[in-house]
Structures are given as structure tokens and as C-alpha cells.
Amino acid sequence: MFKMDCHQPAGSFKIRGIGHVVAQHVAAGADHFICSSGGNAGLALAYCTAALKARATIFVPETTKPSVHQLLASYGATVHVAGKVWDEADKAARDHCAAEGAVYVSPFNDPVLWQGHSTLVDELAFQIERPDAVVLSVGGGGLLCGVLQGMHKHGWSDVPVIAAETKGAESFAAAVAAGRPVALGGITSKATSLGALKVSDEAFRWTTRHPIHSAVVTDQDAFTSCLTFANELRVLVEPACGAALAAVQHGNFPLDKCNNIVVIACGGNAVSAGALCEWATHHSA
Hints:
Layout: E1 2-3, H1 14-27, E2 32-36, H2 40-51, E3 55-60, H3 66-74, E4 78-81, H4 86-100, E5 103-104, H5 111-117, H6 119-127, E6 133-137, H7 142-153, E7 161-166, H8 171-178, H9 201-205, E8 212-217, H10 219-233, H11 239-250, E9 261-264, H12 273-284
Parallel strand pairs: 1-9, 2-3, 2-5, 3-4, 6-7, 6-9, 7-8
């Protein structure tokens, strides 16, 4: 089954954790929030601050599409472009946050954020029987940490998780191979929403507490899986989400004995039907 967080307000699962963080700080009197984002975290923050009548400033890397800039602005957010990759945008966001006295909102590395993301599993536990496996995409590791927290809360501590990434953005796979979080030399994948050079420490620590299988797919497989998803379900998701879809379709781990698989369709905004067709055609050439 698919957990369709692509239908969340602002287009992705990110609103779960970021909404939880923002609501707590607004209740304490905060009115200005700053985050770094490849797009989806920023859109979640912009949506939440607009709803709660607060301000949002978003730092994005140069790879962020103009359509995402427009969406951020439509929610009233201030947008700054900083650096070639997310990590450089994040440094600029933190520096600006210190100067402004605003609240920094991490896109993936905050226990309060993980608590918000864990509500996804609260819903699953109500909706379905215990699954045989859970498949999700990994960027910095926020979704992974939240889902695992929720799984342990509901007694699913031995249900394997497939952590999917695209080649060229596989920071979790690199950490597993090295035995510790390590920084990639750069991001070469077109799934830029997965583009954290280094996975969070907490995401890696979960490998000692839970059965997690790393799956790295190609951009082409992610694009193709997004097209299949669009054709069969009439729903658009971006390549970052396509990594999880492709892990099921093209993965090299055994799922043949799994009858009840949950695939988290995490969403994404940097996508259109034309863009998906163009990506898939270009990479199949």
C-alpha cells in the first residue's frame, strides 16, 4: 500500500514535523522562522507560518527550480538563494538566523520534528495491520527518524525498513559503508530534494537499533517509477519520492515473502508532467 503524504498541504510529508515545530514556537511567542531547503521543507514552513500569521525566510540552493521560488513567494515567504548545494544554503540560513534572532527550523535534524513525522505511523497503525516492510526515501534522515520512532512506539521494532536513495545523493548508504556519517564529495543526482551531503547522526544511529536496508537506485529508475506512478494512480511526485518507488520496482533486496508492504509516497513540489517526461526521455537516451 501507499501512504500518500504527497497529498498533504504544501505537497509533502514535511508539514508533519515542521508544523509541529512551528506550532510549539508560536505558542511560546515566536513570529519569525528561518530554514534552509531544497524546496519541500521551505514550502512546509511557508505554509505553516502563513496559517499561523508568522514570518518565514527560506534559504535555497541554486539548484532549486523557479517554480518552487514562486510557490514560496505565494505563501508570503522571503526567499534567498545561497550556495550550490543544500549544505551551503543551510550555513547561510544559520548565520542569518543568529543575526535576526529568529527561530531556526531544521529540515531534518530535530527531535521535535521527528515527533511530528512519527504521526505518519500513528495513522498507519490505525489504518492497517502490522506491515511486513516499510519503504521510504532518505535525504538528511528526518523522515527515517520519525518513522522509526513511530514504529517502535507501536511495537513494529522488527519490521524492516528499506531506506532508498538515488546514486549521487546516497549519504545514508555512504554512512552505512563507512560505519559512521561521512560527507559526500558533492550531489550529482537530479533528485535534489535528497541532496544532503551528510546524513544526520541520529539517522545513522538507528542502524544499530533497527533492521534497515540501504537501497541505491539510479536517477533513471526513479524517473521511470514516477512516470509509472503518474500513469497508474494519476498522481505526480518528484524524483526524490521516486527513489522509494524504484526501490520496490528495481531493488535488489528480497521482498518476495512480503505481502503487506508500505511505501511512503513522501511527495514533492518540483515536478510537472512535462518535467517528468523530459527527465525520463533524456536519461534513457
